[in-house]
Amino acid sequence: MLFPWRQQPGELFIYDITKQMKRYTISVFTENFIGILSRITLIFTRRGINIDGFTASESREEGIYRITIEVTTTEEQVIQLARQIEKIIDVIKAFYYLDDEVVFQELALYKIPVSNLDPGLEKVIRQYNARIISAEREFVVIEMTGHKEDTQELLEILKEFNILEFVRSGRVAVAKPMETLDKYL
Amino acid sequence: MRGAEIVIKTLVAENASYIFGYPGGAIMPVYDALYDYVDQIKHILTRHEQGAIHAAQGYARVSGKVGVCMVTSGPGATNLITGLADAMIDSTPLVCITGQVDSKLLGSDAFQETDVVGFTMPGTKWNIQVRDVADIAPALAKAFHIARTGRPGPVLVDITKNAQNAFGEFNYVPCLNIRSYKPYPKVEPDSISRAAELINKAKAPMVLYGQGVIIGKAEAELAKFLEKTGIPAASTLLGTGALPEDHPQFTGKLGMHGNYAPNLLTNQADVLIGIGMRFDDRVTGDLSRYAKQAKVIHLELDPAEINKNVKCEVAVLGNCKESLQLLTEEVKENSHPEWMDRFRELYAEERSVVVANDISPTKVGLTMGEVIRFINEYKQDDAVLVTDVGQHQMVAWRYFDYKVPRTQITSGGLGTMGFALPAALGAQLHDYNRQVICVLGDGGIQMTVQELGTIMQTKAPVKIVLLNNNFLGMVRQWQQLFYDKRYSFTELHNPDFQLIAEAYGIKTAKISGRESLGEAVAEMFVHDGPYFLEVVVEKEDNVFPMVASGCAVDEIRLS
User: Are residues B435 and B387 in the same domain?
Assistant: First the structure.
């Protein structure tokens, strides 16, 4: 078993007793039902927990949506969050993972004015494995995928190029454990 | 047929006997359809939508069936919210139908349009807006299924006026399964054997049972488990009645104003077995000093309750009717006479310091406890007690003689003042021939006093006992104990309650002396029809024992 501390029915859940705040990814599989996003976010609102990132899209299964929520909290709290989310009638399953239990990616877009393009930019783009996806008369748009730390690093550098706009998506993540959703359908 | 008629036919198909409701613009088509079905389903017109939902709650709690409530859009729907929150926290099965403006008008701030689905989302187990006539029957069937299964709760179906008016086929199919909803987790055999092992080794085990036992109809299984293991048991507020109180292993009630022994000994037990209860803060007191010495076994249906408040050693997920049976097979026969004696000794202490003065007082003013004593004397065994919230609630709960399940109806988790009068009406309608006693205070009665009108109209023979101390007594008690007797806005200048009840054609009596109390209570019970008995009690009396806010359960005080 990959994660022996995850709740096995009838067993004591072993908590991270240090109550350390860590970054967790909650992965929710849900029916496509009006209001489901509200029901999920209410669980965070009620407990005064900030959502760091949120993405939703259809999953491998037609009609089943996959919502990925990023949150910084304790293990005790994240278990509660996952259980409360799973309690929502139209939610099929909610899993939670630490960063090293998921493969995840985020997308960032950077808008740079053409007037500020200088030879140094090429090096930066190569170095960060970023790319220019659009070139307009007045600006270019650079895209980078990666973890928040990496896209943030590039942002800091691009600030020198007088960056006009920046946007970053929530994370999308697939889990490392070889458990499939079919089991719960 | 029209969608409106489909609504009614679906309710009939779901075996709903009563609709508690209040008409208005956006639900008028359904009320019009109802006019032709009054021989198949009864409608009770309350005097306020809050009264309707509390009545549906009272009906649901006493019957175990789904309570049905129907109101109009806008203010009609928002008036349900207190009842929804109450039913949610006390796991009461309800289906609430709200009318909604035409779907073309949604989001336009039309007359009496509110975002009902949005408003009620945190207060419902599930809710849905129906905008198409074809969805009415499936949505209602799903609503009933969700409300009554698993951990029950309130469900709301908001139906737009165009869906009510449109023509469609009535093709009702009961909902039996929802892919994403697994209401009864399977009991893991491993959890049973681990629990049994702990129980078998325990020297001072204790059972704490809650409403889950009643909802799961596991009363007999609980008694069998207790009798085989010899473990002392205590009930939560809503678990009251799951075990007859004359059972030799019943040791009292848990919580802030529960009994001395079970509260105190919680912090001395070596194994605590929580059954269908959720370790509410009113039961645990200060969590950081709650049963730290004990290993906790938690039998619970709702996975979200496991380790929510109290960390457990063994979680037995599943319906306790099933898990208790399995557990009883695996535990060995046992008895704990010395441990049991500890409970008896502490009860004797509570009896002499608190109970005696409460139920057979020598002081001049009447106590709430002695009123309950007389009620016990004249009530039938299966009488239902409905209480409001406050001192009278705690006193009635402490002293009422509960003999059968589903006889304790009160607002537990939410503490909703104004709950009792409409809830008693709902409970009475389930069975006109059963005694339903509504005990409330002078504060709470005035929050839903208009429902005397519904009692008048339905002739429900509710026995209303008003314990009047002209104070918001529980708040006053806290002000006395923790706020240096600064009685900030708790004293009430009250109307003549007898006159009010009489205006509704209800027979009344008012008692302020001990000598006539017994006779007055007896007279109330023999009266055929609703009855209003006002008892003027001691103005500044306190409820003890008490685990004060922030204290540990073993810091329970007797005075």
Answer: yes
B374 falls within a domain = yes
A97/A109 same-domain check: no
Whether B301 maps to a domain, the answer reads yes
Residues, chain A: 185
Q: What are the tokens at B29?
A: 């088509």
Structure confidence by residue, pLDDT tens digits, B520-547:
999 999 999 999 999 999 999 999 999 9
- The C-alpha angle with vertex B497 and arms to B369 and B518, in degrees rounded to 5, equals 35
SS (H, E, C) chain A: CCCCCCCCCCCCCCCCCCCCCEEEEEEEEEECCCCHHHHHHHHHHHCCCCEEEEEEEECCCCCEEEEEEEEEECHHHHHHHHHHHHHCCCEEEEEEEEHHHEEEEEEEEEEEEHHHCCCHHHHHHHHCCCEEEEECCCEEEEEEEECHHHHHHHHHHHHHHCCCEEEECCCEEEECCCCCHHHHC
Question: What is the SS3 assignment for B546?
Answer: strand
- CB of B126 within 8 Å of any CB in chain A? yes
pTM of the model: 0.95
B336 part of a folded domain: yes
Among candidates A35, A38, A92 on the partner chain, residue whose Cβ is nearest the Cβ of B180: A92
For residue B87 the two structure tokens come to 């039913």
Amino acid at residue number B458: T
Domain count, chain B: 3
Question: Would residue A124 count as lying in a domain?
Answer: yes
From the list B298, B266, B300, the residue with the least C-alpha distance to B283 is B266
Distance, in Å, from the CA atom of B301 to the CA atom of B87, rounded to the nearest integer, reads 17
A80 chain-B contacts, CB cut-off 8 A: 304, 308
Q: What is the ipTM of this complex?
A: 0.93
CA distance B39 to B182: 36
Number of domains composing chain A: 2
Task: Say if residue A134 is in the same domain as residue A83.
Answer: no
Q: What is the distance of C-alpha A162 from the center of its chain? A: 27
Structural domain boundaries, residue B265 = 189-343
Are residues B373 and B463 located together in one domain of the fold?
yes
Least confident of A46-60, B255-269, B425-439: A46-60
Say what angle helices B136-148 and B3-13 make with each other, to 10 degrees: 30
Distance between B249 CA and the closest CA of chain A, angstroms: 27
Domain CATH code at residue B424: 3.40.50.970
Catalytic residues of B: 49, 111-112, 161, 474
Count the residues in chain B: 559
Chain A interface test: which of B120, B180, B322 (most A C-beta within 10 Å)? B180
Strand partners, B178: B181
Task: State residue B466's pLDDT score.
Answer: 98
Side-chain half-sphere of B530: how many Cα atoms within 13 Å?
Answer: 24
Are A118 and A161 found together in one domain?
yes
Q: Which two tokens stand for residue B455?
A: 């009692």
Residue B69, φ and ψ in degrees, nearest 5: -140, 140
pLDDT of A17: 63
Any chain A CB within 8 A of the CB of B304? yes
- Give a yes or no: residue B235 inside a domain: yes
pLDDT of residue B212: 98
- Is the same domain home to A127 and A58? no
Q: Judge if A98 and A110 occupy the same domain.
A: no
Q: Same domain, yes or no, for B374 and B464?
A: yes
